Amino acid sequence: MPKPRLILVLGDQLSADLSALRAADPARDLVVMAEVTGEGASVPHHPQKIALILSAMRHFAQDLRAAGWQVAYSRLDDPGNGQTLAAELLRRAADAGAEALICTHPGEWRVLADLQALPLAVTVLPDDRFLCSPGDFAAWAEGRKELRMEWFYRDMRRKTGLLMEGDKPAGGQWNLDAENRKRAERSLLRPAPLRFAPDAVTEEVLTLVEARFAHFGRLRPFGWPVTRAQAVQALDDFVTHRLPSFGAEQDAMLEGEPWLSHSLLSAALNIGLLRPLELCRAAEDAWRAGRVPLNAAEGFIRQIIGWREFVRGIWALKGPAYLEANALGHGRALPAAYWGGETRMACLRAAVGQTGALAYAHHIQRLMVTGNFALLAGVDPAAVHQWYLSVYIDAFEWVEAPNTLGMSQWADGGVVGSKPYVSSGAYIDRMSDHCRGCGYKVAEKAGEAACPFNLLYWHFLDRHRARFERNPRMAQMYRTWDRMPADHRARVMNGAETVLARLDRGDVV
After folding, report:
1. Which long-range contacts (CB under 8 A, 24 or more apart) does 203-206 make?
2. Which one of 228, 240, 406, 448 has the lowest number of neighbouring Cβ atoms within 10 Å?
């Protein structure tokens, strides 16, 4: 009788067709799942994120056992828990007499290094739940001067056949962003996303998280899908009720309206309860059936087979060194406002407030509010990276790091984006209603009442002029800056320095 092998299933690998499970023999092998303090403490994760992963893991273990698998499951409060993943795997190997471990490639370089250091015969299988393998992405990237998502996205449309009519894009255009940058209207009736009452398993987890973790963020109310069945219900609910208006207002923000028409499916997708092609087909089917407009289906599909697959490819291509990127040399501490500290800025207060309450903020709040402010202020990108990884329910290193270090903070020097995503307050005013109730005046360009985004935007451009003034997408802004009267430019720079000094002192901004 051959010795059993350990089959590792991590908390973001809760898919019945995981490559590690496909390679296993249910009659011989032992599935290992472990809740360990080390994973909850390496980053101060939002309590709702910890609860989601632990509850989903426990439900998935139940499903595996019902399907005939032998499962060794370590709970966080088990007396014999070794507190780290490596310790638990060695304990389970000793108990079972196993000398080999099979796993699916993890989404963190740190975890991969820990697994490869184990005194076991470790087999790491590809995570083929993605639509573009690391090898295929590397082949696509080879020889290109620039790695641009738009060109990758078009190739993924051709590869998958999504929203294609023969070899042409449906509707004749690849990109419908021009139709997807509208302000949200309060008069639009948007059914709230489907939320799920905690069952006994989830309630037990919530009690455990309350007792063990005092991280930033509110744990209750908790309503995220924790099973495959719930995730499918949430997908159906989104396609029926919010996908029709998703496209037009996907970049919009409204005070007191955290969900708008967004899907809230990224957490379920990123832990394995849903599959990317499943979401895309549902959106495409709804369009072909005439239930949603093309711009909505295209905008949603772009986020999945475009950005999601693209940033995962970047993460795999660049490796662990990517996490240290800091091309702009920024080093300022993360402002206290990001951890719920006081701020006069209405948009920042709204984004951080709902992040604490819900473990969620949509992509424009992350990119153009919290990310934009951190970049303009020169915050250390490593600190920004750790914050995003900590506070969002859908944040895992493979997706969060390229989005933060690359797209948001330009720390990778332009690998992900051709220019920094920076803006003055005018963009936020155009896409939201936050400015109406702000402690600053977005129309003021200088002076004490001026929106900090207005001041810091020009300060950022000025201090990084040598790097960006020849960028074709930014040259016009430098010409605009140069045409401003010298005394006005001096007032702007002095105002920006005042804002930065207040940040450095820990004063309210």
Report:
1. 205/51, 205/54, 205/55, 205/58, 206/51
2. 448
Residue 412 tokens read as 């990778």
Q: Give the chain's length.
A: 509
If asked whether residues 365 and 389 sit together in one domain, one would say yes
Report whether 384 contacts 328 (CB < 8 A).
no
Domain match, 187 and 274 both: yes
Q: Which two tokens stand for residue 94?
A: 């000793």
Q: Which residues pair with 122 in a beta bridge?
A: 101
- Look up residue 29 and give its two tokens: 């092998």
Q: Are residues 25 and 104 in the same domain?
A: yes
The number of distinct structural domains making up the chain is 3
User: Dihedral through CA 47, CA 196, CA 230, CA 56, nearest 10?
Assistant: 30
If asked whether residues 121 and 140 sit together in one domain, one would say: no
Domain that holds residue 303: 134-193+242-318
Pairing assessment for the beta strands 164-165 and 121-125 based on DSSP bridges: unpaired
**How many CB atoms are located within 10 Å of the residue 189 CB?**
6
| Same structural domain, 283 and 142 | yes
Distances (CA, A) of 21 to 71, 140, 163: 12, 29, 32
The candidate with the shortest Cα–Cα distance to 396, out of 25, 3, 6, 52, is 52
- Residue 349: strand, helix, or coil: helix
Q: Which of 407, 396, 332 is nearest to 368 (CA)?
A: 407
Strand order in the sheet with 70-74: 70-74, 30-34, 6-8, 100-104, 121-125
- In a domain? residue 198: no
Task: Tell whether the torsion through CA atoms of 348, 349, 353 and 354 is positive or negative.
Answer: negative
Tokens standing for residue 324: 């240290």
On whether both 371 and 480 belong to a single domain, the answer is yes
Q: Is-contact 324 382, C-beta < 8 A? A: yes
* Angle at CA of residue 395, ends 33 and 125, nearest 5°: 45
- In order of 109, 173, 188, 250, 295, the CA distances from 157 in angstroms are 29, 12, 31, 21, 15
pLDDT in tens, 420-446: 999 999 999 999 999 999 999 999 999
Q: CB under 8 Å to 92, separation ≥6 — which residues? A: 6, 30, 32, 72, 74, 98
Q: 3-state DSSP helix/strand/coil percent for the chain, to nearest 5?
A: 55, 5, 40
Cis status, amide bond into 452, omega within 30 of 0:
no
Residues 151 and 33 in one domain: no
Residues 143, 118, single domain; the answer is no
pLDDT given at position 40: 64
Residues of the chain with pLDDT under 70: 40-41
CATH at 448: 1.10.579.10
